[in-house]
Amino acid sequence: MIMIANARTAIAGIGLVCAAAAAPVSAQDVSARVLGWYGNQPQSTELVRPFWEKIDQSENGLSVEFRTMDEIGLTGFEALRSLQSGAFDIESFQISFIGGEDSVLQGVDIPGLAFNFDELEEIVDVYKPVIEEQLGEKYDARLLAAWPFPFQIMFCKGDVQNMSDIEGKKVRVSGILTAELVEQLGGAAVTLAGPEVYQGLMQGVVDCAVTGSQFGNSNDWFEVTDTQIDMPIGGAGLVLTVARNEFWNALSDEQKTSLTEQVGKLEADLWEMAREGHDDGIRCNTGQAPCAGKMGDMTLVEPSAADVSLIKEKLEENVLPLWSEDCSNAAEDCLQNWNETIGQTVGLEASR
Questions:
Q1: Mean of the pLDDT values across residues 243-262?
Q2: Mapping DSSP to helix (H, G, I), strand (E, B) and coil, where does residue 126 land?
Q3: Reduced to 3 states, what is the DSSP secondary structure of residue 237?
Q4: How many DSSP H helices and E strands does the chain contain?
Q5: Which run of H or of E encompasses 227?
């Protein structure tokens, strides 16, 4: 794998691969560098990579070079910088990794807003205009798709019966707001890269870890944990797929229409995969059939009404105000836009 420092240098040296003219060029002249999220996920291997490879072989006039973050040695935290550098024409990135740099985008994937995929889909739909405006004004880019991974739930060592049992435990997290939520529950938030979590759990560096049920299963977390809590304490790992406007404007009208329709179908397939993957991962980790992964023997804890109430309380009193302050500093109309969309949908009001 290319070292991160070298990857940064490589990105800086990559020229724009699409025509820079404002007017659309002929179809055969348009090429695209596409950067996907991490390649060690079924979303990438089964849907996203095959999608872009098929586009490359089609007759719509687009030639595509597809790479993933890990293939070029980048971390998720560098996603926005690689977008702004102009190295890639289309890019996918997970919001939880870039929330510290863009709190407006983070507003759609705050832990505790949604507890099932129907709720999540409604939240994403009402907030899409805000996302589109932010992408256009700050990054000169446009939204092509927004899709989730399976909900980010908890794998814990020992007998954990409810969310109050997190008190005193060290919990691996991957986002600022998830860390705040864990702290408010009395736990200690710890940052570990995905490949380090198995050893961290086994050696007692952390007691619990937050990730998708399917990812945890494929990385054998069920071998070093005992309890799986089906509570989306880490949000949904929502991913945005965006295109730079300079690239988009170089496409013909026919190419824009075709790509929009095809990406829309990919987006729907990714939502369905998230729903099915979430359920399958839970079944596998707890030793239930049918299971497309590896069979574990974890104990499943379904969140009670008291657990949901506790998470909502911490969200409203502590997590949402933390995000609100950052978002207000980032954009004057951030809270108004959030309150008029997601706030009305979930019955909350964000304020400083």
A1: 94
A2: helix
A3: coil
A4: 16, 11
A5: strand 227-229
Three-class secondary structure of residue 153 per DSSP: strand
- Percent of the chain topping pLDDT 90: 73
Residues 195 and 205: beta-carbon distance below 8 Å: no
Alpha helices in the chain (DSSP H): 4-13, 42, 49-57, 79-84, 95-98, 103-106, 117-139, 176-184, 194-203, 213-218, 245-249, 253-285, 305-314, 320-330, 334-338, 344-346
Give the 3-state secondary structure of residue 167: coil
Q: Quick one: pLDDT band at residue 30, thresholds 50, 70, 90? A: confident
Question: How far apart are the C-alpha atoms of 270 and 292, rounded to whole Å?
Answer: 17
d(CA 150, CA 201): 21
Q: Exposed e or buried b for every residue in 288-314, given b needs 16+ CB within 10 A?
A: eeebebeebebbebebeeebeebbbeb
Instruction: Decide which of 98 and 28 is more confident.
Output: 98
Query: How far, CA to CA in Å, does 258 sit from each of 30, 59, 62, 264?
Result: 14, 11, 11, 10
- Which residues contact residue 223 at a Cβ distance below 8 angstroms, ignoring those fewer than 6 apart? 198, 296
How far apart are the C-alpha atoms of 124 and 147, rounded to whole Å?
9
Helix (H, G, I), strand (E, B) or coil at 113: coil
Distance CA 281, CA 232 (A): 14
| Tokens 């404002």 -> residue | 22
Domains along the sequence of the chain with CATH? 4-148+237-278 (3.40.190.170), 152-234+279-327 (3.40.190.170)
